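Project outcomes to date are best conveyed with an example. Our students and postdoctoral researchers have been running inverse folding experiments weekly, and each run begins with a structure described purely in tokens. The record below, which covers 243 residues, was selected by the lab manager from last quarter's runs and is presented without edits.
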């Protein structure tokens, strides 16, 4: 039995009126009650080991004290029938068996109640329960379908990512910049400068791109595109990587 109430019945009148307990010293009362507590909590059968050395380790009571107590009060604990290595207190054993009977009674009553509820349920109730279950499944399915999909990424580095939408916004604001290359440079800069890593990548990238000057070009936003090594050198210089 793995479960047991954290308490057991103890009737003061019965305990104090016993001829045995009336002649106990204060220390012996303590030993007796501690043995009862350990029998109830520590063992699955409300019993204790008969070996006094084992019992002393279990309870923390000195073996010599246990020896004197068990010799003086032999009737308080008896040997378990069929197991000469364990002892039990008759009063505690009776309560433990009563507890087991109550558990079994409650278990059977619960099963009978469940069968009765099932027998009383009508076809309409059973159909209603089935429909409710199907509706709940459908709701879960719909919630999963309506959940927003993860945004597609244009760049995924060690320290920040750029969604397709963010990349498009930056592309409109800085059309002359090689964005994938700058994303990689910015990610490398964050790796080299951990103490300066920003909390918000959006603002950082905007500032990063703003430092890269627009190439000389005509009016109305027309630009003379730099390509290859010239563009890389211009961007590195504008970003502060080279002089």
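After processing, the design step wrote out the following sequence:
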């Amino acid at each position: 039995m793995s479960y047991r109430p954290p308490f057991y019945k103890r009737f003061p009148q019965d305990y104090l009126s016993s001829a045995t307990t009336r002649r106990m010293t204060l220390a012996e009362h303590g030993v007796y009650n501690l043995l009862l507590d350990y029998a109830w909590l520590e063992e699955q059968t409300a019993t204790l080991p008969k070996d006094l050395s084992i019992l002393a380790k279990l309870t923390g009571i000195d073996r010599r004290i246990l020896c004197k107590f068990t010799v003086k009060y032999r009737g308080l604990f008896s040997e378990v029938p069929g197991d000469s290595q364990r002892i039990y207190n008759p009063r505690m054993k009776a309560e433990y068996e009563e507890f087991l009977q109550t558990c079994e009674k409650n278990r059977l009553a619960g099963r009978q109640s469940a069968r009765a509820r099932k027998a009383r349920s009508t076809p309409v109730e059973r159909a209603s329960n089935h429909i409710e279950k199907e509706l709940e499944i459908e709701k879960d399915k719909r919630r999963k379908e309506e959940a927003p999909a993860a945004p597609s990424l244009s760049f995924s580095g060690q320290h920040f990512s750029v969604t397709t939408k963010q990349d498009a916004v930056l592309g409109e604001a800085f059309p002359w910049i090689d964005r994938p290359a700058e994303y990689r440079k910015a990610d490398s800069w964050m790796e080299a400068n951990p103490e300066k890593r920003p909390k918000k990548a959006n603002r950082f990238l905007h500032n990063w791109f703003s430092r890269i000057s627009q190439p000389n070009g005509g009016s109305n936003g027309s630009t003379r595109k730099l390509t290859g090594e010239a563009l890389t050198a211009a961007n590195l210089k504008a970003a502060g990587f080279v002089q």
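The CA atoms of residues 35 and 59 lie 7 Å apart. The two ends are 80 Å apart (CA to CA). The training component of this project remains on track.
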